[in-house]
């Protein structure tokens, strides 16, 4: 049984993330064994800091491409009917989509301040648990800034507004759409009548361009007015997928500090550290699994430290420090409670003598 850990839904899509959506679509159309998703919405469970993550028995696989390669080895290969040349073309186009097409989405979601503040950030706020809902949207936006620098998109002002200074971005977006249009033209799929991985990757990305509900839906407008064939492809795929059920698993055993430790500390620690395992029945863990668990523990530890820092920084819990001088005074055997009380009484009596005395008493 396969379990997918993914970003949650939005805009009538099973996931708001193109990579997660691609893998979900692949499983819907290709995988015939039992599988389901867990809407964990926390990339910190992944050793690479990204979703989706696949759990297959004792194996953990992170990243959309790695997951697709893994299930292909399990016999669910969407490209088995492609020729050698078509397979090479598929790899090239998938790389192009995950680069240029994904950058188009980053620009729309994070460079457009209105879209980010009114739609994207609130959407993440609904999906994420406290307190990570305060920093993960901005963390993703920082990653977007770095990726968009090659297009001349720069950060300006104290608020870090992203500006397409050289007006290159929309030219690049239209060029990317044109490349996909030239490939599919009037075919049902990108390789004629053969459904392939490329179709699922393209839909996973274009669906977030086309169906997202944003204040400034510029990408959807460009697609509908200038590239209607790509819209028809997405609509066909969406109709096909609407007939396939997606099983959602509960997240009781989610390996996350916020939905695990804070929800049930005893259960989480028992399951993670103290549970007695039947060694004879349990399969030997691979090195990849051991590396994953080690990185996951590091990730969870970092999350705990962030939570503690957040609480202290926002003065939810205050910590008072006593100087060594005060400590020595109160620990001195020669000082008793009567001496301390006498000092306070003298201060009260002398409070009206002068302004200087007031300052000393204070």
Automatic annotation (TrEMBL):
It is found in: Mitochondrion outer membrane. The chain crosses the membrane at residues 297-313. One of its GO terms (biological process) is mitochondrion organization. Residues 330-362 are annotated as: Disordered. Residues 331-362 have a biased composition (Acidic residues). Pfam families: GST_C_6 (PF17171), Tom37 (PF10568). Keywords: Membrane, Mitochondrion, Mitochondrion outer membrane, Protein transport, Transmembrane, Transmembrane helix, Transport. It comes from the Eukaryota. InterPro entries: Glutathione-S-Trfase_C-like (IPR010987), Glutathione-S-Trfase_C_sf (IPR036282), Metaxin_GST (IPR033468), Mito_Protein_Transport_Metaxin (IPR050931), Sam37/metaxin_N (IPR019564). GO terms for cellular component: SAM complex. Belongs to the metaxin family. This is Metaxin-1 isoform X1. It comes from Rhizophagus clarus.
């Amino acid at each position: 049984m396969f379990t997918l850990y993914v970003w949650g839904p939005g805009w009538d899509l099973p996931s708001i993330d193109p990579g997660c959506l691609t893998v979900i679509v692949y499983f819907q159309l290709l995988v015939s064994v039992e599988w389901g998703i867990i809407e964990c919405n926390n990339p910190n469970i992944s050793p690479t800091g990204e979703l989706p993550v696949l759990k297959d028995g004792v194996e953990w696989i992170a990243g959309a491409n790695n997951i697709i390669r893994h299930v292909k080895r399990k016999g669910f290969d969407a490209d088995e009917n492609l020729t050698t040349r078509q397979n090479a073309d598929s790899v090239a186009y998938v790389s192009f989509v995950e680069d240029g097409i994904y950058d188009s989405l980053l620009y729309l979601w994070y460079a457009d301040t209105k879209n980010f503040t009114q739609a994207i950030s609130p959407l993440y706020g609904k999906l994420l648990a406290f307190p990570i809902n305060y920093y993960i949207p901005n963390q993703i936006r920082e990653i977007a800034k770095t990726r968009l620098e090659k297009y001349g998109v720069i950060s300006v002002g104290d608020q870090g507004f992203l500006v397409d200074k050289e007006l290159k971005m929309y030219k690049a977006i239209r060029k990317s759409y044109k490349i996909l249009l030239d490939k599919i033209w009037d075919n049902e799929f990108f390789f004629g009548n053969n459904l392939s991985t490329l179709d699922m990757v393209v839909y996973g990305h274009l669906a977030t361009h086309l169906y997202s509900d944003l204040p400034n839906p510029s990408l959807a407008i460009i697609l509908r007015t200038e590239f209607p064939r790509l819209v028809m492809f997405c609509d066909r795929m969406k109709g096909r997928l609407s007939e396939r059920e997606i099983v959602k698993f509960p997240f009781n055993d989610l390996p996350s500090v916020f939905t695990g430790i804070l929800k049930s500390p005893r259960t989480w620690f028992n399951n993670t550290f103290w549970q007695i395992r039947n060694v004879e029945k349990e399969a030997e863990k691979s090195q990849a699994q051991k590396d994953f668990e080690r990185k996951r523990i590091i990730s969870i530890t970092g999350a705990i430290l962030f939570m503690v820092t957040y609480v202290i920084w926002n003065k939810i819990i205050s910590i008072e420090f006593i100087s060594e001088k005060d400590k020595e005074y109160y620990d001195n055997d020669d000082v008793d409670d009567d001496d301390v009380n006498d000092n306070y009484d003298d201060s009260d009596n002398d409070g009206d003598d002068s302004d200087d005395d007031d300052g000393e008493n204070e």
